[in-house]
Specification:
Elements: H1 2-9, E1 18-23, H2 29-38, E2 43-49, H3 55-59, E3 64-66, E4 70-72, E5 79-83, H4 92-95, E6 103-107, E7 130-134, H5 138-144, E8 146-147, E9 150-151, H6 155-158, E10 163-167
Parallel strand pairs: 1-2, 2-5, 5-6, 6-7, 7-10
Antiparallel strand pairs: 3-4, 8-9
């Protein structure tokens, strides 16, 4: 990984896009966080398979101020897959801060907490083109789906996404 880091951060590098697929179990979040921030400027696709203590710790960092007025998110990820993450805390407050996110896949025990909310901010995540939910809690799914012509209570929060795939 150190060679890849040197290549990615080199001024002579032509590397403009990087996708990482990480599989780990009981990995300290600090190690994963360091890896993420080392490649943040070019990291566009991130697949994480394995237990995460808390999603917010992985992505926490200070946003940058531009012209003392505009706050820019340092996160450039366009595709994020989480599976077997066993997150207990709701990931939505973190995910809604990804301004370039176009594809989101929450699958296979990515979330095992009691209740996942879809904060109002997700409505304004206009870059998201594809939401994939697989093997998520049934109560959560019912809030998002339309059943027998009746929309779930949170359907309006995801209705603007062009592609939504929900499987059990």
């Amino acid at each position: 990984m150190k060679n890849l880091s040197a290549l990615a951060l080199s001024s002579s590098s032509n590397l403009r896009y990087l996708g990482l697929s990480l599989t780990f179990y009981d990995q300290p979040v600090e190690d994963v966080r360091e890896l993420f921030w080392d490649y943040n400027s070019i990291l566009q696709m991130l697949n994480i398979s394995g237990q995460l203590a808390e999603l917010a710790q992985l992505f926490e960092n200070q946003p940058r101020n531009i012209n003392n007025h505009v706050v820019e998110s340092p996160i450039r990820i366009t595709s994020l897959t989480l599976e077997y993450s066993l997150l207990v805390d709701d990931p939505m407050p973190v995910l809604e801060k990804f301004p370039t996110l176009r594809y989101l896949d929450l699958s296979y025990d990515s979330y095992v907490g009691k209740e996942m909310e879809l904060p109002e901010g997700l409505i304004f995540l206009t870059s998201l083109q594809h939401l994939w939910l697989d093997s998520m809690p049934i109560d959560f799914i019912h809030k998002l789906c339309t059943t027998n012509g009746t929309q779930g209570q949170d359907y309006y929060r995801v209705a603007h996404f062009p592609h939504i795939d929900i499987t059990q």
